[in-house]
Design brief:
Alkaline Phosphatase, subunit A, ten-stranded mixed beta sheet, 19 helices, binds zinc ion
Length: 465
């Protein structure tokens, strides 16, 4: 295996072997990684992991749990830890450039998926290389299958929005498993192109939303309640399989002598953080962590041959925990929430003569006691009741204050988050370094601080040992 991997790697610009020599990457402790899990929490920085852990600790305190269950996230128990820098060639990265770095070991510009769009050069991903050398490959995401992060592992596009083209590349990738959200646009933007599910079925994929079909060695599993290709918000409790269920099914489908490589993305942590919704972010992070626990169960049975890496592509929102962020406060404020910002936003549209008292009462039911008739909440309410194209006249900082979201919803989300001691600096991505945690065969390679491209290089080194 090692020789074949090194041959493949040497075709790449940043060969892992050269990198190892140049940057003194220590040799991994002997065993080669035959079963590899790469977990990517989209938008998940240290504060996001911390907040989810405080929520667990608060739940334990509040429930009066005399058993003292461990309130640590599974991902925070992994022994090897490091940080990666996430900038792309455009500066602050988007998920396409960072997905490309993690998957292929190459920096690129924002919006490009696994290629250099200027010269048309395409980059091979660790998943493709693993497959070329006999391993089975699975891709799981709570976002849609053609979204930038998963796409960087199986396809190439100069623009990440080229979804249908990426969908075709998915169907032709030969990867054995795709699970999670679903296709965003199975028939293309014009809704007239050939259905991607149909094409997949013709390529011997079982289409199995119920995760119980083993009739084919290849499967595509869209969530039965997916919306726009996304899995439903965990906090909205829509039912259906969890991210952990998709991982469990993937393990059963992929397991065998050839080994496997599975990438698992928590894609909606990022969306929650864009909207500065700490409760939705915590629930998505906990679901992602349950998926990590499934991989850890597998690791317990095969510790010498399994490698689990948990990292992120970038931080989103500039999430900060302040002095109020004690476990009880975090759990108290966030567990009072009845759903995601997106669910509440659907209830709000401009109504003539709307009475603010009614809306505050509704918001208090939905977001909990953090919402009060404070001046900023009232100001946001007036904007929400104004037609979108007239809001800027009323409030020149409208976009800066509320991003692309409904103003009243954002004011309520922020008030509830603040009660938990959680504040935000932006609706976009930040340049913060993000953590890497690893366990198993070759895990020691992932310690230290390095560029995001180093994840791919180390993965290949660990698989090829
Ligand atoms: Zn994002």
């Amino acid at each position: 295996m090692r020789k074949r991997f090194i041959e493949a790697v040497c075709k790449q610009a940043f060969a892992a072997v050269f990198l190892a020599a140049l940057f003194f990457i220590p040799a991994s402790a002997g065993a080669s990684a035959k079963y590899v899990f790469l977990f990517i929490g989209d938008g998940m920085g240290t504060a996001q992991r911390n907040a989810a852990e405080l929520y667990l600790a608060g739940r334990r305190e509040t429930d009066g749990d005399t058993l003292k269950r461990d309130a640590q996230l599974a991902m925070n128990t992994l022994p090897a830890n490091g940080f990666i820098r996430t900038d792309s060639l455009s500066g602050i990265t988007d998920s396409a450039a960072s997905g490309t770095a993690l998957a292929t070991g190459h920096k690129t510009v924002n919006s490009a998926v696994a290629m250099n769009p200027k010269i048309g050069e395409k980059f091979s991903s660790a998943a493709t290389i693993a497959r070329e050398h006999g391993m089975r490959v699975g891709i799981v995401t709570s976002a849609f299958f053609e979204d930038a992060t998963p796409a960087a592992f199986y396809g190439h596009a100069s623009k990440r929005t080229d979804h249908y083209n990426l969908g075709i590349q998915l169907v032709e990738s030969g990867f054995e498993y795709f699970g999670g959200g679903g296709f965003i646009n199975p028939k293309g933007k014009d809704k007239k192109s050939r259905d991607l599910y149909e094409m997949a079925a013709a390529n011997n994929y079982a289409i199995t939303p119920r995760l119980d079909d083993f009739s084919s060695r290849k499967a595509i599993s869209p969530h039965p309640k997916s919306s726009g290709g996304y899995m439903p918000w965990v906090i909205d409790k829509a039912g259906g399989p969890s991210l952990a269920d998709f991982v469990s099914y993937g393990v059963k489908l992929l397991y065998g002598d050839r080994g496997f490589f599975m990438m698992v993305e928590g894609g909606k942590i990022d969306l929650a953080c864009h909207a500065n919704d700490a409760a939705a972010a915590v629930h998505e992070t906990l679901a992602f962590d349950e998926a990590v626990s499934k991989a850890l169960e597998f690791y317990a049975a095969k510790p010498d041959e399994t490698l689990i890496i948990v990292t992120s592509d970038h931080e989103t929102g500039g999430m900060t925990l302040d002095s109020r962020a004690e476990p009880g406060a975090v759990y108290g404020a966030l567990s009072a929430r009845q759903g995601s910002y997106a669910k509440f936003e659907r209830k709000i549209s401009p109504v003539k003569g709307a009475r603010i008292g009614d809306y505050i009462a509704m918001a208090q039911k939905f977001f909990g006691p953090g919402v009060t008739p404070a001046p900023d909440v009232e100001h946001a309410f007036r904007l929400s009741m104004t037609a979108k194209n007239r809001r800027e006249t009323l409030e020149p900082r409208y976009r800066k204050l509320y991003g692309p979201y409904d103003p009243f919803t954002m004011a309520c989300v922020k008030a509830s988050d603040a009660l938990a001691g959680i504040t935000w600096t932006t609706y976009y991505h930040t340049g913060k370094k993000v953590p890497v945690s690893a366990i198993g065969a070759g895990a020691d390679l992932f310690s230290g601080e390095y560029e995001n491209t180093g994840i791919c290089d180390r993965l290949i080194a660990a698989m090829g040992d």
